[in-house]
Write a structure and sequence with these properties.
By secondary structure, the protein is mainly alpha-helical. It has 3 helices and 2 strands, in the order αββαα. It has a two-stranded antiparallel ribbon with strand order 1-2. The chain is globular, with a radius of gyration of 11 Å.
């Protein structure tokens, strides 16, 4: 993985943890029923990246927890 990809992955995870996980007095955990909503929120910020790419980053991150 290139350094740019690693930096982008860190940025996506950080953005999720700081801005999406606790959204409008609601906790959005990375579980199947919340994935579409989370990805929609993240897509607003990362509109130059595909939803599939963002989902892969999140799936990879949570598979390692």
């Amino acid at each position: 993985m290139s350094e740019n990809n690693a930096d982008f992955r860190k940025e996506v995870i950080s953005y999720f943890r700081l801005n999406v996980y606790h959204n409008e007095n609601e906790f959005l955990e990375w579980i199947p029923r919340n994935k579409a909503r989370i990805l929609d929120l993240m897509k607003e910020r990362y509109n130059d990246h595909s939803i599939v790419e963002l989902e892969q980053i999140m799936d990879d991150y949570y598979s390692k927890l």
